[in-house]
Amino acid sequence: MMSLAARRTAVRGAIGAAIIGLLVGTWYAWSGPIADTTDSVRELAAWIRSWGMSAVLAAISLMVAHSFVPFPAELAAIANCVVFGPYTGFAVTWVGAMLGACIAFGLARRLGRPFVLSLSRGRYGGRIDRFDRWMERRGSLALLLCRLVPLISFNVINFGAGLSAVSWWTFIWTTGVGIVPVTALMMVLAEQLF
Q: What is residue 102's predicted lDDT score, i.e. its pLDDT?
């Protein structure tokens, strides 16, 4: 078992990594490919607008699809802000990302968790049991920190959390809070670029 000093050092290191990740992600978004993809955002915004009265549902569905099909969700978030304005676009992006995350978590919990539990009866049992106990106690901090580091795949976290013993409530609140910074950054980018 880790000493109190070791735990504090680990938490400080994780918080430092999250801050560095946010800074690198912000720099990357401002200077990297997102800044060079205005045509893609315009095309995506035109596609969302083409849905007319169902544009909100199309935009939410696009964010849900991102949980299963790899494409840059940041472009969809920026397009949502372009189409609906910054605040409604933020809300549409947040709702779609939350729905996609919950569906992915639910599928992993329903289909993958039984497999993980079957491993716990074998040679990996002790490790899996220890990891599950750790996730039950400290899973909220771990998930929240993972959500705040933009270099860690949003979708990998969704599926990985579903395989673990983390509770639905912990998954939902950490995901809901963790989506906010990147979505807010996309809102700012949409305002600056369009």
A: 94
